[in-house]
Description:
By secondary structure, this protein is mostly helical. About 10% of the residues have low confidence. The chain contains nine helices and no strands.
Amino acid sequence: xxxxxxxxxxxxxxxxxxxxxxxxxxxxxxxxxxxxxxxxxxxxxxxxxxxxxxxxxxxxxxxxxxxxxxxxxxxxxxxxxxxxxxxxxxxxxxxxxxxxxxxxxxxxxxxxxxxxxxxxxxxxxxxxxxxxxxxxxxxxxxxxxxxxxxxxxxxxxxxxxxxxxxxxxxxxxxxxxxxxxxxxxxx
Length: 187
């Protein structure tokens, strides 16, 4: 029995400390998925908290045959999709400021130009992701940021594998058109 399996069993039995260990283990991937989908650090923090709250309240129904990571990312992605639908795709403008996380300030790369270039790349990626539907955004994020298989994405988003492949293809085409359109506009 692995440590994670034991932590899950203890958390299902009501051990809050064990659940805390699971939160610690998965807080970064859950937050990163929420951030990639929502595009805002504060909203991503709130979404991550909500995802863990939902996981805690439904922990007794968790199927141990399913990877915990997939289950948590599924909860997170569904919450983010619902949130995006509620706000009707109101996205960050180019004038919005990005918050700088403290760990970035203390990075191994003190060169400010490198930091600014990285932030600009991240902002461009976030803007491109914002052009996709919530489900397509989740599909792209799970595939390219979390390296999930088609089967894992299908399970997480409650889609068929062929629907995942189709969504990824359409999303890549849409992103390519958006990038190409911006390049033509710049010329």
